[in-house]
Amino acid sequence: MSAAWLDGVSHLVFDWNGTLIDDIDLAVASVNRCCARFGAEPVTRERYRREFGFPIVEFYARLGFDFNRHPFADIVAAYLEHFDAHVARCPMQDSVAELLELAAARGIGASVLSASQNSVLLRTLDAKRLLGSFQHVVGLDHTHASGKRDEALALQARLALPPADTLFIGDTLHDCEVARHVGWRALLVETGHQDRARLDEGGVPVFASLAALVQALSAPAEAGEPS
Length: 227
Hints:
Elements: E1 11-14, H1 24-38, H2 45-51, H3 56-62, H4 72-86, H5 96-105, E2 109-117, H6 118-127, E3 136-140, H7 149-159, E4 166-170, H8 173-182, E5 185-189, H9 196-199, E6 206-207, H10 210-218
Parallel strand pairs: 1-2, 1-4, 2-3, 4-5, 5-6
Helix pairs in contact: 1-4, 5-10, 7-8
EC number: 3.1.3.18
Protein name: phosphoglycolate phosphatase
Family: Belongs to the HAD-like hydrolase superfamily. CbbY/CbbZ/Gph/YieH family.
């Protein structure tokens, strides 16, 4: 892959958690606080990344939470209480600035689409001094943890571009599903909430990191590569 691969792309849409911000350790810690509180076995980072997925209710079921004893809404509230209080302290993934600069140099816009609550998302982006880097920032206005398909469709309407002109960069199979639902292109990075074995099921390019993506997109076009 080289920079020519971005030909025809007018806009990048980024997932947030795990893709732009390195919050996997906080997520695991927040889940384990819920495990301790609601009587489930603690999880390792490896199991978390092996099991994580949308809808989140099914993820918690796989982890052994008993919704007859503890309503799912109570578990989500306990998770968010810890996660939202600490997420702004998480580091950004490597090469976020370089990727945004590369896109801007090619006249490609950028937005964020996240399953985080919109208020927390905006506050964290502001804390990272990234709020002005994105044309649109779209999060959730509820805590149902059901995914972000509806939000993606709303963002597509705001972009007013042919869907195939947008590339969605994420870290989970749900991001692939969202992209297909809207008609966007997609690629994934393996620095986030699902492991490589899971991501390979998505049928889209998978990169080790944003840094690896930047390196690939900065490479000269190879002979015979489509332009």
